[in-house]
Amino acid sequence: MTHPTSRVRLAGAGDALREQRVAQQRRLHRHRAVNMATLAAAFSLFALYIAWLEVYGAGTVRSDELPMAVAIARGPEQADGVDRAGLVKRGEYLARAGNCMTCHTSDKTRPFAGGVAMGTPFGTIYTPNITPDPDTGIGQWSDAEFLRAMHEGIGKTGERLYPAFPYPSYTKVTERDVFAIRAYLNTIVPVHNTPPANELRFPFNQRWLMLFWNLFNFDEGRFVPDPKQSAEWNRGAYLVDGLAHCGECHTPRNFIQGLASRARFSGAVQAGWHAFNITPDKVSGIGNWNTADVVAYLSNGVAPGRAYAAGPMAKIIEDSTQYLSGEDLRSIAVYLRALPPVRGAEKQPRDTLGTPATAVTALRGAVLSGANGVNGAQLFIANCASCHRWTGEGVGASAPGAYPSLIHNSVTGAADPANLVMVILHGVSRKTQQAEVWMPSFGNQLTDDQIVALSNYVTAQFGYPRSSVSATQVAQLRKQPQ
Ligand code: HEC
Ligand code: HEC
Ligand code: HEC
User: How large a percentage of the chain has pLDDT more than 70?
Assistant: First the structure.
């Protein structure tokens, strides 16, 4: 006979079992629903991918070695397999062309030791140490692993790398050139340094998700020269679309941060700065620049009477393009000038706007004053005229190292006033073999309202007259990590 309490207990145990079974079934059901949803999502993504391939995929050819020697960037020296020193030297040249330095160096005394904080819409990524340190750098990576990272965006243990590392461009670089870069990196002083961990929000901290990103935005494969084009064009294409990754900043991005395959090089925003339209459109792009302008701009940051490089572009020139040979720079210019032109909303080229200020301009300043009665003209005379003159014409014409004219200047003449605000906030600092250029930053001296008044005065007088900036925009630009 069973004791009543034990019966109760048994009944209780039975209930628990039943409940467990029901819960199990529910879980199974939920699991199946989740599985179905995942499958459906994966299928839709796959279908989208197929559709995408239909539209853009045609003509994508993969090739692992370069059939045409002409497309290879020429360094100061050509290296063959035996010439070790030559190989390292060429690797150094190519590492400069790829600008590995800017992104992987947070402390100039420890080059390539990583730790640069890169702001992305999804959080902050810290660049890794790529010195040959065996514990914290890439000292233990095989050449094949290095090649896979550059060509496929896959890390040492098979993890997917984020495209903040421009592997979607580096995939175009020949195996030979990647190995030369590796040979050079092997000669760098190893630095023991572990950069901070990434601060990415869920789900962007899930590296495997890059698999989907890659499906839509990544075309793995080496550069294929176009035999119909000149050797110069091919070399330019190899550099611009590959190592020099110019499109990573100058090409607009789609909603998942992939580079839009249409409107290439028609301009995009990078860390608050507008990386201008550099297609050969005569109004919105750089169609009026000649080859010498492009070469001068990339070698010292000044296209006389047109443009001066600040912000991220100044870094590119300082760490990368100033070291490229004249032949490579000319090839870049040839390729840029042959791109399909893209027209924006502008009515006049940004480097043709503005007139010098006259004595009455300062008096008229009251009319141009911005918020809270701050007078832009007076602010200009107090803060900027010592170098750019009160007329805005500058001192020393546009030689590198001069105080440039703000008239016929691509920053004041741009429809988007962001770069002007950024120049006022952060100043200009650019060091090349030809000149060291420095403009102070006014971010700590001037309030947002003062910058509004100043910037609106500068664009109205010296640049794009319809452009205007608000205090909210200035506050947002101030917050952009540089
Ligand atoms: C625009 C910035 C940028 C440039 C330019 C750049 N990198 Fe990186 N690189 C990154 C970031 C960010 C990561 C980390 C990606 C991640 O964590 O998924 C990275 C990762 C790597 C890795 C993987 C290291 C590891 O520990 O996983 C290697 C190797 C590498 N870069 C080599 C290079 C070389 C060589 C160059 C020059 C040809 C270069 N990078 C240029 C941003 C850059
Ligand atoms: C890290 C982002 C970045 C990369 C990479 C980059 N640029 Fe730029 N570029 C900019 C920004 C930002 C500006 C605007 C600079 C300024 O306002 O002074 C600019 C300006 C320019 C201009 C001047 C346009 C004008 O009208 O003033 C040219 C030409 C140019 N870039 C060419 C290139 C080429 C060629 C490459 C590749 C070798 C390249 N850029 C790579 C961000 C970038
Ligand atoms: C101490 C001298 C000095 C002062 C003061 C100064 N600038 Fe400059 N400015 C420079 C120099 C130097 C450059 C960079 C020239 C070059 O790139 O070759 C420059 C560049 C610029 C550019 C072009 C940047 C580009 O990317 O094309 C603008 C716009 C500009 N200044 C606006 C101003 C404004 C507005 C003020 C006042 C708030 C000001 N500057 C104050 C020296 C000065």
Answer: 79
